[in-house]
Amino acid sequence: MSNPLDRILNPRRLAVIGASNDPEKRGYRAIRTLLADGYRGEVLPINPKATEILGLPCFASIDAVPGEVDLVLVCTPARTAPEVIEACGRKGVKGALLLAGGFSEASEAGRVLEEQTVAIARRYGLRLIGPNTNGIFTAREACNAIAWFDIPRGPAAMLANSANVMLSVLAEAQQHQYFGFNTLLSVGNQSDIQFHEYLTAMGDDSDIGAVISYIEGFKDGRAFIDAARAVTPKKPIVMFKAGRTAEGVRAARSHSGSLAGDYAVATGVLKQAGITLLERSDCLYPVAEALHLLPPLRSRRVAVLSEGGGVITVAAEALSERGLIIAPLSEATQQRIHEIVPNASAISNPVDAGGGTDPRAEYYGLCGAAILEDPNVDALMLTGFFGGYARRYGEGVAEMEFKVARDLAELMRKHGKPVVVQSHYAQFRTPALDVLRKAGVPFYRHIEIAAQCLASAADYSEAKRRIAASHPVAEAAAALPPAAVSLITAARSAGRNALLETEARAVLAACGANVAPIHLLRSSDDAVAAIATLGDQPLALKVVSQDVLHKSDSGGVRLAVRGEAGVRAAVVDILASVEQHVPGARIDGVLAAPMAARGVELIIGVSRDPQFGPVLMFGLGGIFVEAIEDVVFRALPITRADALEMIGEIRAQKMLDGVRGLPRVDREALVELLMHVSTIACAGDDIAEIDLNPVIATADGLVIADARMILT
Amino acid sequence: MSNPLDRILNPRRLAVIGASNDPEKRGYRAIRTLLADGYRGEVLPINPKATEILGLPCFASIDAVPGEVDLVLVCTPARTAPEVIEACGRKGVKGALLLAGGFSEASEAGRVLEEQTVAIARRYGLRLIGPNTNGIFTAREACNAIAWFDIPRGPAAMLANSANVMLSVLAEAQQHQYFGFNTLLSVGNQSDIQFHEYLTAMGDDSDIGAVISYIEGFKDGRAFIDAARAVTPKKPIVMFKAGRTAEGVRAARSHSGSLAGDYAVATGVLKQAGITLLERSDCLYPVAEALHLLPPLRSRRVAVLSEGGGVITVAAEALSERGLIIAPLSEATQQRIHEIVPNASAISNPVDAGGGTDPRAEYYGLCGAAILEDPNVDALMLTGFFGGYARRYGEGVAEMEFKVARDLAELMRKHGKPVVVQSHYAQFRTPALDVLRKAGVPFYRHIEIAAQCLASAADYSEAKRRIAASHPVAEAAAALPPAAVSLITAARSAGRNALLETEARAVLAACGANVAPIHLLRSSDDAVAAIATLGDQPLALKVVSQDVLHKSDSGGVRLAVRGEAGVRAAVVDILASVEQHVPGARIDGVLAAPMAARGVELIIGVSRDPQFGPVLMFGLGGIFVEAIEDVVFRALPITRADALEMIGEIRAQKMLDGVRGLPRVDREALVELLMHVSTIACAGDDIAEIDLNPVIATADGLVIADARMILT
Predict the structure, then answer these.
(1) Distance of CA B323 to CAs A247, B299, B419, Å?
(2) Smallest Cβ distance to B659: which of A246, A254, A626?
(3) Distance in angstroms (rounded) separating the CA atoms of residues B585 and B587
(4) Which of the residues A156, A306, A326, A541 has an alpha carbon 20 to 30 A from that of A315?
């Protein structure tokens, strides 16, 4: 509980600036809500014109309050903020929550006012929540400073750019009842305290079991993922992030002024930090609950159990589409199921324990036990009537249904394998489902939501294992080798911000990357030497010049050139053509390289994302880059596990596995190259961008066919 | 009401074979349910050992029943079926519903029993429902022959391979209350009456407003889509079809013995027939309700209205991801919204009418009216607090909320533009939401479901327009032109089942397709003639031989050959190489064609789908076919509108729009070619398969670079 924000978020003494006796005013409603919700701390109304508000003695000013104040709730208009914060700072108040809008989200004048207010706060070491927020609710001291009612208590925390989205999730909790809130936090403009600081505080609070977040854009995305990486090993972070579409980006900008950024980048780096990113807002709450309740999955192999067909088909599709594996049960388990329900329609997985007879709750319990003991599967999804047996077949079967509910939870704990239940009767909130949920097994109305919960639990389990296994990354990465440094120094001395291709290749080589041989021809007379170096094989020739951006368009490229005469002629051609297109271009020579064999064109790049800083891109290169945009991202530096995941996330996996006579891509070599690029990009502060496109995966290995590097 | 199945599905006289006084028996429960649910017809129990069952006089046999019988409900075991159906046939009964399992779904003996039973029924013109079904419920005569209780009545019909999936949807209706059922029909083994016949009956029944279907596989998919095409102009068909994944295909086979077939084919042909195919089972019920309630959308341009940010971002993303357009509102509308809510945070679309003040229900009504009058948008989605104002702000605002609910429905009708409401308070079923729904506006708990409903409504509106506009397709298509017929006849006479490439090209040309010039060289001496025909340009040379399947692998292809000497040498090479690889191959010559310019490789194919018959495939060709599987299907024949839709459904649209210097594909020319292929495939019964791959879209037009045709 040593988080610096802890006392601000869970204040024991809370002053209300702008406290009021007018029931229409927020300064009245705020106090009423605090009292009504049983705030365990002390409320200190501040109003120079009142002596008592809602039965509490009122102070004329913050200075007049005796003793320490943890948090002030500022209900006065935006323009009063500098003066109020100045007074609070003098008093030594720890934090202030600015409710008012009219700051940077509204106008340029508001932006100035916000900056001014923040500057004052910083002078005093006072931390600001908001402005432009609906406030916060925290359960420890029952501090309801958000003025919403009926907040079910529980282990969830929510952190949001939007109070309305938070209210929507809250409404879900009010219906569900089981998975309530410890914290609700509407961040507002994040003028001072930002997402990542709140997140770290939530990570440090052992009362919080799961974090739900709705985020339109980060001010400091790098700090957020660093914070998240420390939180996700302890508790899940489930996120919905705006910006998948141009329309979403536009709406986010108009709503919170957020720059949603590149969603593909966010997808990669948030996953890397162990965050569960969801693309449906209706999954936020159930997935957070599931990740909080369920034990980790040891693998992605799951079983489906029902008492009828149809639903097993729907479930099998929903699970496998989300990357789970419907693994066959062992012969022994199948035999056990057959003995329990001799008429069972399917016993191998999915299991349809329905048959000639009416379904009975005990089948679920007995078959569930058999399945959970099977080493072939690591989780179980039940789908169908469970929770509705008593309703459907009469109270006579209620006791059995309760017993099975308790048994399922006990089996989950005993085997350490998640169990989730989809019940057609979920919305009727039957007593059996109540028993089930109280024993720790979540239930859902629909198969797709249940499947998403199980899939997200599998993803989260893998992410936790990956993060736990990753060697501590040396943030102060190794310096570049001297050879690379001299190349960079030379380029800078020559006033160049971009390395020549020959230099970029040399840097890669100096750092240990496997770069194909090249030869730089200064003139056509070097043809013999080039052939001597590279062998008498078809060559690709490219002009090397800091002044030629588009080599092909300037006639600076010739392919499949062969023999001394051919090379000579091509070099003469290239130099003439470039001179014609870019008169006076400074030309360092013509680079010759063997023509790459037929292979798979890949792209590897490094760039600086405005939100997340340096990121690595990997994907299909060449024409695929623009045509199908099959690329993935990670924040730098990466681990080997990150590299492997990146390769596995390419949608067109078939392109990597050898299709239509293309070679199978050597994933291990690719991991090596990605690690080299990561190391180079993180060594020192010299390299801003790297673009290797295409890297051709041939039968003989990876060939870097083009390399660009931009310096910082 | 002239559908031949109408009396069977809505029987007025219903006999129960195997009627029983034992409350455990289906023959007792069936009668009890019929009576309890107020069956308006006459129940006729049949049991030789009883005189009265549940107060009804019992008959010893079906022959003993006086007068006509519409339907018999057969509750006796499978083995009795032939005898029972024989007796019913003799009696002149119209239809029989066989409840028992143990037929073709269970064993080979069961399959024989089923065939035997069907043969008897056919002899008497008696139609069979099932066997292996839970039965049917139809509302007109209150005929509950499915033995489920609490069935809310309404305009929906459900047709399913799985009673359990149907029960799950029924449970949703029981909670929702507003959109109940006219018909519930579990088809069982479809031994006689099949999906398409039920569907046609549902189309003919004016009490039915929407059809929900869960289908694992078709026995006669072509008949189904033909039936569907006649139904969808009258009422929506919403479908969930198994088979998206290998796991789903496997589960469907184990459950209903269905062959789920190629899902990509099903997606295309079901859409073509105007069916709304959904990929989440939790969307079936809400989308069916929406398509039933909402007026058609004139375009895909929709508006979003809320009183808070965040949710407008989520809504904008959800709608645009589903292909709807968040179109800017007119200046005049924006001005009106500004006047209604001067503090509104966003007025252009999405509209966030929240601002400095607390939200008020009347804003929804006034802003909604302004938006629906705007010609720039054709539908409105409200998202946020509506339905919860009274709950949130007190009963004082209830009347206004009711008024706005009525106003929104009135606006929807007046402008003929759909309105849907997402309410955070949906699950509380507030009085305001009740007023709203009763007035015809659907409401939803979650944004994604609301967005899916609006998107499906837009899709359905477009499909109805497309089907209405399509010229009646000449099913008995024009015969092939004589030139094509003689080519085919010649090939058949030569004992060949596949056309040579030259013949396939000639058939295409004879049918009016724009085929690039070729020249067939019989020997190397034809080089001069080939160059005279095709011009002195780089040529592609390919062997033409019925015995050479893999031309490249046999050395039968040479690319970029130029000049007389070059062509001569290449022909000699090819002939020698083929002879070496396929000794004795019958060689018709070497085909020369100009090398295609750089372009986009496409594929066009015709094949026979086991479920849907002849289908047309279009997509990205060459390496893309296997690497990214970006292809779409339609049943043959297609209309021009179908062809345009096919081209528009390719995921990598960028490949068609000119990327990385590739030419922009001429969609009009592509439509022409697809129509030609459709015509050729449908003319007569000669051609079983066509494979044009690649068709290269160059800057100068489409070049068919390879053509194969297989005869029937």
Answers:
(1) 11, 11, 17
(2) A626
(3) 6
(4) A156
Q: Inter-chain contact A168–B424, Cβ cutoff 8 Å?
A: yes
CA dihedral B682, B683, B685, B690 (to 10 degrees): -60
**Both tokens assigned to A504:** 């970029």
Q: How far is B428 from chain A (nearest CA, A)?
A: 8
Read off the DSSP letter of residue A108: H
- Token code pair at residue A204: 């440090």
User: Please, what's the b/e burial string for A443-453 (b: 16 or more CB within 10 A of its CB; e: otherwise)?
Assistant: bbbbbbbbbbb
Tally of CB atoms within 10 A around A90: 12
Task: Quote the CA–CA distance of A600 and A378 in Å, as a whole number.
Answer: 36
Cα–Cα distance for residue pair A323/B245, rounded to 1 Å: 11
Q: What is the pLDDT of residues A186-214, one digit of tens each?
A: 999 999 999 999 999 999 999 999 999 99
Q: N- to C-terminal Cα distance for chain A?
A: 41
Q: pTM for the whole thing?
A: 0.94
Q: How far is CA B246 from the centre of its chain?
A: 19
Mark yes or no for CB contact B424/A171 under 8 Å. yes
Length of chain B: 712
Q: What DSSP string describes A218-277?
A: -SSHHHHHHHHHHHTTTS-EEEEES-SSHHHHHHHHHHH------HHHHHHHHHHTT-EE
Cβ neighbours of B215 in A, within 8 Å = none
Q: Dump pLDDT digits (tens) for B557-596.
A: 988 888 899 999 999 999 999 999 999 999 999 999 988 7
How far is the C-alpha of B125 from the C-alpha of A668, rounded, in Å? 68
Interface predicted TM-score of the whole assembly (ipTM), two decimals: 0.93
Instruction: Give me the DSSP letters along B166-228.
Output: HHHHHHHHHHH-SS-EEEEEE-TT-SSS-HHHHHHHHHH-TT--EEEEEES--SSHHHHHHHH
* Rounded Cα–Cα distance for residues B693 and B706 (Å): 6
Residue holding tokens 């479901």? B449
Question: Does residue A493 register a pLDDT over 70?
Answer: yes
CA–CA gap between residue B129 and residue B508 (Å, rounded):
47
CA nearest A575: which of A559, A555, A592? A555
CA distances B178 to B156, B173, B422, B441, B442, Å, are 11, 7, 16, 11, 9
- Closest in B307, B313, B385 to A255, CB measured: B313
Confidence of residue B513 (pLDDT cuts 50, 70, 90): confident
Check B101 against A250: CB less than 8 A apart.
Answer: no
Selecting from A252, A318, A449 the residue whose C-beta is nearest the C-beta of B313 gives A252
CB contact under 8 A, A171 and B427: yes
d(CA B604, CA B696) in angstroms, rounded, equals: 11
Q: What are phi and psi of B514, to 5 degrees?
A: -85, 95
Cα(A164)–Cα(B309) distance, integer angstroms: 7
Per-residue confidence (pLDDT) for residue B473, from 0 to 100: 54
For A247, which of B307, B316, B427 is closest by C-beta distance? B316
Query: How many other CB atoms are found less than 10 A from the CB of residue B202?
Result: 27
Condensed to tens digits (0 to 9), the pLDDT of residues B606-630 reads: 999 999 999 999 999 987 888 888 9
Tell me how close the Cα of B53 comes to any Cα of chain A, in angstroms: 23
Chain A residues with CB under 8 Å of B428 CB are 171, 175
Collapsed DSSP state (helix, strand, coil) of residue B651: coil
Instruction: Say how far apart CA A350 and CA A357 lie, in whole Å.
Output: 19
Q: Best of B24, B105, B151, B168 to disrupt the A interface by mutation (most A CBs within 10 Å)?
A: B168
Residue among B162, B321, B448 whose CB faces A245 most closely: B321
The pLDDT confidence band at residue A296, using thresholds 50, 70 and 90, is very high
